[in-house]
Amino acid sequence: MTPEEMAAHLVFHVKQAALDDLTRFAKVLAERNEVMNLVGPATLPHYWSRHVLDSAQLLNHAPDARTWADLGAGAGFPGVVLAILLKHLSTDSGETPTDRRVFLIDSLAKRCRFLGEVVRDLDLPATVINDRAENVSLKVDVVTARAMAPLPKLIGFAESFFRKGAEGWLLKGENVEAEIVEARKNWAFQSELFTSLSDPRGRVLHIRSVRRAR
């Protein structure tokens, strides 16, 4: 998949400057992956589909969200991709850099150092937080995560965000329906599932009105 083919799947206009930033991110990721094991090496040739489109599709579903929290941000998916796109969408709409922001939350210091370098080098509207997700309390529009934990645990990690009104837009695998059933044993929430644009086996899970089950 080319950058242009990736962009064609999105409902909003992707500027060339955004594609340039995403290309720069790909280069840094490949270089650092040799020593940090940020992503599976076999996925790098499929960067635009496996990583970028997988992340960017979240903005198709939540185009009006201004603030995002990416839990277990890891290599920057989906958080860094979202920050790059939001940076250039803000430029298009005349917003200031602080109007849209992504909080990249990860418990490993070395990953946070990597994310911090990317944020600085690409001048992204993002803040890196080196802490466990359950220790962070922020008011955001959306909480997201990819491959962080099964849904029952993930909801627990994100509980403080949901209490403050966030909705969840989560990138999940083909076993998500079983995860939803398990999560409902301890949590009450509304949910919707969408087929992933990057892999027909994947799902985008939307959850809202999250609270502890009685």
Automatic annotation (TrEMBL):
<dbReference type="GO" id="GO:0005829">
    <property type="term" value="C:cytosol"/>
</dbReference>
<dbReference type="GO" id="GO:0070043">
    <property type="term" value="F:rRNA (guanine-N7-)-methyltransferase activity"/>
</dbReference>
<dbReference type="Pfam" id="PF02527">
    <property type="entry name" value="GidB"/>
</dbReference>
<dbReference type="InterPro" id="IPR029063">
    <property type="entry name" value="SAM-dependent_MTases_sf"/>
</dbReference>
<feature type="binding site">
    <location>
        <position position="77"/>
    </location>
    <ligand>
        <name>S-adenosyl-L-methionine</name>
    </ligand>
</feature>
<dbReference type="InterPro" id="IPR003682">
    <property type="entry name" value="rRNA_ssu_MeTfrase_G"/>
</dbReference>
<feature type="binding site">
    <location>
        <position position="72"/>
    </location>
    <ligand>
        <name>S-adenosyl-L-methionine</name>
    </ligand>
</feature>
<comment type="function">
    <text>Specifically methylates the N7 position of guanine in position 527 of 16S rRNA.</text>
</comment>
<feature type="binding site">
    <location>
        <begin position="133"/>
        <end position="134"/>
    </location>
    <ligand>
        <name>S-adenosyl-L-methionine</name>
    </ligand>
</feature>
<keyword id="KW-0963">Cytoplasm</keyword>
<comment type="similarity">
    <text>Belongs to the methyltransferase superfamily. RNA methyltransferase RsmG family.</text>
</comment>
<protein>
    <recommendedName>
        <fullName>Ribosomal RNA small subunit methyltransferase G</fullName>
        <ecNumber>2.1.1.170</ecNumber>
    </recommendedName>
</protein>
<keyword id="KW-0808">Transferase</keyword>
<keyword id="KW-0698">rRNA processing</keyword>
<keyword id="KW-0489">Methyltransferase</keyword>
<keyword id="KW-0949">S-adenosyl-L-methionine</keyword>
<feature type="binding site">
    <location>
        <position position="146"/>
    </location>
    <ligand>
        <name>S-adenosyl-L-methionine</name>
    </ligand>
</feature>
